[in-house]
Amino acid sequence: MPPIVPSRVRLITSTDIENLLPELMDVLRESVHGGASLGFLPPLTQEEGRRYWRSLTPEVRGGSRMLFAATVAGRLVGSGQLALSSWPNGRHRAEVQKLMVAAAWRGRGIGGSLMKALHETARQLGRPLLLLNTRRGDRAERFYRGLGYKEVGLIPGYSIGPEGEAYDNLVMYQLLVPSP
Fold first, then answer.
1. Could you give the CA distance from residue 7 to residue 12 in angstroms, rounded to a whole number?
2. Are strands 75-84 and 93-101 parallel, antiparallel or unpaired?
3. Helix and strand counts by DSSP (H, E) for the chain
4. pTM of structure
5. What is the mean pLDDT of residues 36-41?
6. Contact, 27 vs 76, CB < 8 A?
7. Nearest Cα to 122, choosing from 179, 48, 164, 59?
8. How far apart are the first and last CA of the chain?
9. Which of 14, 37, 67, 157 could disulfide-link to 61, CB 3.0 to 4.6 Å?
10. What integer is the mean pLDDT of 136-147?
């Protein structure tokens, strides 16, 4: 296993998105082309990636989505998101979305650092219930289980791969304990 490396995780503002667009696109594209289940199919074009990241700007600006970047030596190597429920009966929950780490940095604690930041932010916002979706059997499933996420249910054939193959989806949750 590669050595754990210290990373800096920070919140990305709506104005940061455009400045970080090339790096965000690189991590997304590499993740999708590596088989990550992020809603896209390879080949992911530059225009699709650019359109996706720019589409987040209104939500980030409005505060309904929190976008995080993990950097090592000033270079963006990972990203993750918290989508905040705006419904009156759901203001205690958030959804973890699009957690991704560049291939060269996987297994070095970057994903864990991102999740720690997402968890801490959720706590600070009074959102102790976190939900997420992941592909059944993927490395991501083991990662989330290792962080204490529990399976709610399975949706068979939820997504398809580049060759039309069906993949099952797991819905998972975690109830965060308050920070000491």
1. 15
2. antiparallel
3. 5, 7
4. 0.96
5. 95
6. yes
7. 179
8. 31
9. 14
10. 97
